[in-house]
Amino acid sequence: MSDPLLPIGKRLDLAFEFGKGAWLYTRNGDRYLDFASGIAVNSLGHSHPHLVKTLKAQIGRLWHTSNLVRIPDGERLAGRLVDATFADVVFFANSGGEANEAAVKMARRFHAAAGAPERYRVVTFTGAFHGRTLAMIAATGYSRYLDGFGPKVDGFDQVALGDWSALDKIITPATAALMLEPIQGEGGLRTVDPETLCRLRDICDERGLLLILDEIQSGVGRTGKFLAHEWAGIAPDIVTLAKGIGGGFPMGACLATRRAASGMVQGSHGTTFGGNPLAMAAGNAVLDIVLDVDFLKRVVSMGKLFRTHLDRARCKYGDLIAEVRGVGLLQGVQTVVDARKFVDALRAQHLMAISARDNVVRFAPPLTVLPREINDAARRIEAACEFLREWKLQPQGQQPEPENVRTTLPVDGRSEDMEPLS
Ligand SMILES: *Cc1c(COP(=O)(O)O)cnc(C)c1O
What we know:
Aspartate Aminotransferase, domain 1, seven-stranded mixed sheet, 17 strands, disordered C terminus
């Protein structure tokens, strides 16, 4: 049968029928422990009772108006985001890429409104990922995403993180902003240390630039703070969110100080779907859970527990794991074998993970993950390592595909205790 979907990615022959908490269930009753959460999207796991209840009620009430009228839930969500962060204003979009587009437009407009329209360039950093729109592949600056799509959108310059002299040279009177992820997700869980973030903030202040943080992956509690940059104690000018903010419902947001947003006036930007009532209901429901201090403390302790397991695996399987990386519930390992094979081997043990650049295996479990689920994941990681150790020793060409291995760990979803998650 010919595939009716545009073949832009390799799809696994695996489909899920339903999900509950950190578990995904196939039609034939097998279950998988979901330490991918989409790609760090299902922040409260699957079928979270509060999200289900809120969205069901909203679906029966109102899906869409336009933002030509007031959307009270959107005003409320924006207010809550403002109260919880550095920001004064919020723009709602439908995806991360769109939130980033809004951020870059805002930065350019800031300088234009201040009488310096020639300041439009944005400096980004190698290993970045900012999305797949034409402008964001230019911001990302990764040749594989740029190839064959015509001239790269002008206005983005890239340097290596930590190369201060290169950064100094690349900033010119045409520069409007610096843009980076506090933890590079797709780039391989490279964490920007607090000193570096502080120094970048200082450079922005000295040179009159705006600091844009792309927290699309690291934000909304993923690292144990509501926003990851809070660990460094700095104040950005603009922050973008998406992924986890809707708990699985597509939405994005661009948060800014009033000053940074000062160029954005009536008519300067727009969206049809952004901030729609369904998305706003989802966003508010996620905040009901995530904004609780105890919730974030729990994320920190779950992150520590997971770290202990990953460090132990690194000690025991140094021939397979080179390094443990990441923060909170966005952690992973740089592998010695091909990270994609490692992910296949984990999936054979019914543990879902995601590969990233730099040969990294990334884990982003639901923020609601339970200690016993983290311990279970550790057993599956160990089983995958045991398999890969054997696999590595076999001559090239004669190695079985890791994904075809059958696990001996429990996978039967029907026998699983089905008690509701709190
Ligand atoms: C996923 C991601 C994006 C792009 O988000 P989309 O919703 O796919 O457009 C941008 N930046 C970062 C850091 C991301 O992780």
